[in-house]
């Protein structure tokens, strides 16, 4: 075997190793998703409770609180309302309307009041339903703050944002906000019917199991190809050796040439 063949074999082995690691990573993600689904099922079945009893003193809505039903009572601050752009619900593009709700203890929580489907090519909703005046009581689902890596989509700019992020909103709006937000299941007085609701969580295993199998299959395919071509290389080498050892054929002497 020459150097080129050895380099190719090493490259195939590395490729197979990478495929195995990617398969293991997919199965690790599957385990994480199953654990998250268990938490979601538990939270969906839990009875409603005041937000401070669920979240605690630090005011941070974590993964362990997602989809838990919280009850809050307070007053909307419409002057600090934010329009969420580039949102999508059930494959429909549009906007979400987020309004801070000031609670009796002085804290505030972001409330995602609902979804407005985009009409044509509009860049902002043509009409935003007004918030109820006076005190309102909301029963809704807790969600952790949305994060977009190093983007600034969670910082409101001119009354709009792309992500719902409690700490970023708190700095921009000057409010002591919970780190997280609430989507409305029920509101008294009732929420405006023009604001659409949101689908529930997806509680399934996702595609991770089959993706993991695919990566393992690719690894086996690479190793199988290496074995096959290695055998072909060995057979080709053996044939060349046999041809060289036999030597040149002895020329036939025509009859009568020795006379």
From TrEMBL:
<feature type="transmembrane region" description="Helical">
    <location>
        <begin position="209"/>
        <end position="229"/>
    </location>
</feature>
<feature type="region of interest" description="Disordered">
    <location>
        <begin position="143"/>
        <end position="163"/>
    </location>
</feature>
<keyword id="KW-1133">Transmembrane helix</keyword>
<keyword id="KW-0472">Membrane</keyword>
<dbReference type="InterPro" id="IPR045214">
    <property type="entry name" value="Surf1/Surf4"/>
</dbReference>
<keyword id="KW-1003">Cell membrane</keyword>
<keyword id="KW-0812">Transmembrane</keyword>
<feature type="region of interest" description="Disordered">
    <location>
        <begin position="234"/>
        <end position="259"/>
    </location>
</feature>
<protein>
    <recommendedName>
        <fullName>SURF1-like protein</fullName>
    </recommendedName>
</protein>
<dbReference type="InterPro" id="IPR002994">
    <property type="entry name" value="Surf1/Shy1"/>
</dbReference>
<comment type="similarity">
    <text>Belongs to the SURF1 family.</text>
</comment>
<dbReference type="Pfam" id="PF02104">
    <property type="entry name" value="SURF1"/>
</dbReference>
<dbReference type="GO" id="GO:0005886">
    <property type="term" value="C:plasma membrane"/>
</dbReference>
<feature type="compositionally biased region" description="Low complexity">
    <location>
        <begin position="237"/>
        <end position="247"/>
    </location>
</feature>
């Amino acid at each position: 075997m020459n150097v080129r063949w050895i380099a190719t074999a090493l490259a195939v082995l590395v490729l197979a190793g990478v495929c195995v690691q990617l398969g293991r990573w997919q199965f690790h993600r599957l385990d994480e998703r199953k654990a998250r689904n268990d938490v979601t099922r538990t939270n969906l079945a839990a009875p409603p409770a005041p937000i401070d009893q669920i979240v605690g003193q630090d005011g941070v809505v974590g993964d362990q609180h997602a989809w838990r039903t919280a009850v809050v009572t307070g007053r909307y601050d419409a002057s600090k309302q934010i329009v969420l752009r580039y949102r999508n619900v059930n494959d429909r593009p549009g906007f979400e309307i987020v309004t801070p709700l000031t609670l009796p203890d002085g804290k505030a929580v972001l409330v995602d009041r609902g979804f407005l489907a985009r009409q044509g090519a509009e860049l902002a909703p043509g009409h935003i339903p007004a918030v109820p005046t006076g005190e309102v009581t909301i029963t809704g689902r807790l969600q952790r703050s949305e994060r977009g890596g190093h983007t600034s989509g969670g910082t409101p700019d001119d009354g709009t944002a792309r992500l719902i992020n409690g700490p970023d909103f708190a700095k921009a709006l000057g409010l002591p906000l919970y780190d997280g937000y609430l989507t409305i299941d029920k509101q008294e007085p009732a929420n405006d019917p023009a604001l659409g609701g949101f689908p529930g969580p997806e509680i399934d295993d996702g595609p991770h199991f089959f993706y993991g199998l695919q990566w393992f299959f690719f690894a086996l395919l690479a190793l199988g190809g290496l074995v096959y071509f290695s055998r072909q290389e060995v057979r080709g080498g053996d044939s060349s050796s046999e041809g060289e050892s036999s030597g040149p054929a002895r020329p036939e002497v025509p009859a009568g040439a020795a006379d």
